[in-house]
Design a protein that fits this description.
- The chain is α/β, with parallel strands linked by helices.
- It contains nine helices and 15 strands.
- Helix 1 crosses helix 7.
- The termini are far apart.
- The N terminus is likely disordered.
Length: about 260
């Protein structure tokens, strides 16, 4: 069972796996009422089950999740965390479990068509994310940082920023939920997500890695992903099926006409 708590639980109980996250990142982690759900939340619950433990989730600002692992307030961190060389200096990472992209959201009437057009623009990002890190390389850009991704998107809608750079899957959700904005086709960056664990905690790292790879091998991991993200293959299959059905109807109509 996935549970959510405030900043009170400590990673001291051998029977409890404490996960630090930022529940503002659909479809990986977000709130449904008082419960935290999403890909990371469900995968963490499956990992905890394999370890014979109960999962507790600590919801906090994104730029605090790695610090929570470092300080021992959490055993693991899952929050759509991109593996970077800088982060490897402070925490250890499991094997990666998904590839991700930083994408650009703009208003529908924007002249921004790709990453090169961000030069000199005002860009909204979520504080502490890789989008926050990477936009520093955009020449003459002004960066506006927000605690939550949707706050950056609202700033875009209100005309306070020219674009938002954020992870691809949350970007899709924000665009679906808000009129007047769109997602650009060209990715800003490509990256990979992994689970963060405190430095030198090799025992937990090995156990979580083993559980994670078992979930991948058994197909359980993919089932969780498919629950929240429609695969391109599935969409293509639906399109092909619809086209085939249309062709069949047209052929039947022509036969009747003849």
């Amino acid at each position: 069972m996935v549970m959510s708590f405030g900043m009170t639980a400590m990673a001291e109980d051998d029977n409890v796996l404490v996960m630090a996250t930022n529940a503002e990142f659909p479809p990986y982690e977000y709130r449904e009422g008082d419960e935290i759900v999403g890909i990371d939340a469900e995968v963490a619950a499956l990992i905890a089950d394999k370890l014979g433990m109960e999962l507790e989730i600590e919801d906090m600002a994104f730029d605090s999740v790695l610090a929570a692992v470092q300080s021992g307030k959490a055993d693991i961190a899952m929050a759509g965390i991109t593996v970077t060389e800088d982060r490897k200096m402070t925490v250890d990472f499991t094997d990666t479990y998904t590839k991700a992209t930083q994408m650009i959201i703009v208003t529908e009437d924007s002249e921004i068509a790709g990453p090169n057009d961000l030069e000199g623009k005002t860009i909204g990002v979520q504080l502490g994310t890789t989008g926050d890190i990477y936009v520093d390389d955009v020449a003459d850009a002004t960066v506006e940082r927000y605690n939550k991704g949707f706050e950056a998107v609202q700033a875009l809608i209100q005309g306070k920023v020219d674009a938002v750079v954020i992870d691809g899957e949350p970007a899709k959700v924000f665009v679906e939920q808000n009129e007047g904005i769109k997602l650009l086709d060209e990715a800003f960056t490509e990256e990979e997500y992994a689970i963060a664990i405190a430095k030198d905690n090799t025992e937990l790292l090995e156990k979580v890695n083993t559980a994670l790879n078992e979930l991948k091998d058994s197909g359980e991991f993919q089932k969780v992903v498919d629950k929240y993200i429609s695969s391109d293959d599935a969409a293509e299959d639906e399109t092909e099926a619809a086209e085939a059905e249309t062709e069949a109807v047209e052929a039947e109509t022509e036969a009747v006409t003849e």
